[in-house]
Amino acid sequence: GQQVMQIPQYQHVQEGEDFTTYCNSSTTLSNIQWYKQRPGGHPVFLIQLVKSGEVKKQKRLTFQFGEAKKNSSLHITATQTTDVGTYFCAGHNVNRDDKIIFGKGTRLHILP
Amino acid sequence: NAGVTQTPKFQVLKTGQSMTLQCAQDMNHNSMYWYRQDPGMGLRLIYYSASEGTTDKGEVPNGYNVSRLNKREFSLRLESAAPSQTSVYFCARGTSGSLNTGELFFGEGSRLTVL
């Protein structure tokens, strides 16, 4: 079945440093979504990427979708304490089995 | 909570007991989902429903049943709870009539402990 792998599992960075999390799918994806979950909270949608090679930006966050539509990344520039949380990617494959499968997430911890 | 309400928020069960987690959306969207979240395991799909009256298995359906009797409500039932089902359960709704074309909105979660 479809698998979505995400690395790293944990990341500690000094405030102001950059952060990147990577997502890889075992199958080609129709689209990929990114979510953020604050400690004790629920996942909140950040963005969806649909096109091969697509790049989208939200302030300090840059999202990329690979040319083969099997991988994606989220890059945060100059991290702030408000960036703390777990970042998840989620996607489904082109066979449209109607499942949205999540990666295991990357937990970001900011050191002051 | 983006219009998704889950009850109860907390529950403690003994092994073998049964219970139902309720989820209701205040919009008229077709797709609804149940995920469980365990430390280090991310969010794993239990069941989902593309529309009223239809349900499909996700990644980890064993030990669970679901019911989508109307468009608003999607319930998750544990017939005989086991300690391995101790988890945080999230219900989510989609945003359009066709699955996988829009983001998911999650409820605040239900924390279940099975002793």
Please, what is the average pLDDT of chain B? 90
Can you write the helix and strand succession of chain A as a string? EEEEEEEEEEE
Helical residue percent band of chain A: under 10%
Series of secondary-structure elements of chain B, N-terminal to C-terminal: EEEEEEEEEEE
Quickly give the structural class of chain B: mainly beta
Low-confidence stretches of chain B: none
Determine the fraction of residues in helical runs of chain B and give it as a percent range: under 10%
Class per helix and strand makeup of chain A: mainly beta
Describe, in plain words, how this protein is organized in 3D.
- The complex is a heterodimer of chains A (112) and B (115).
- Chain A has strands at residues 4-7, 10-14, 19-25, 29-37, 44-49, 55-58, 61-65, 71-76, 85-93, 101-102, 106-111.
- In chain A, a hairpin with a 6-residue loop joins β4 and β5.
- Helices cover 0% and strands 56% of the residues of chain A.
- Chain B contains no helices and 11 strands.
- In chain B, β5 and β6 form a beta hairpin.
Task: Describe the secondary structure blueprint for this structure.
The complex is a heterodimer of chains A (112) and B (115).
Chain A: E1 4-7, E2 10-14, E3 19-25, E4 29-37, E5 44-49, E6 55-58, E7 61-65, E8 71-76, E9 85-93, E10 101-102, E11 106-111
Parallel strand pairs in A: 2-11
Antiparallel strand pairs in A: 1-3, 3-8, 4-5, 4-9, 6-7, 7-8, 9-10, 9-11
Chain B: E1 4-7, E2 10-13, E3 19-25, E4 32-38, E5 42-49, E6 56-57, E7 65-67, E8 75-78, E9 87-93, E10 105-106, E11 110-114
Parallel strand pairs in B: 2-11
Antiparallel strand pairs in B: 1-3, 3-8, 4-5, 4-9, 5-6, 7-8, 9-10, 9-11
List keywords for this structure.
heterodimer, A: 112 residues, mainly beta, 6-stranded mixed sheet, 5-stranded antiparallel sheet, B: 115 residues, 7-stranded mixed sheet, 0% helix, globular
Q: What does this entry show, briefly?
A:
Chain A is mainly β. Chain A is 0% helix and 56% strand.
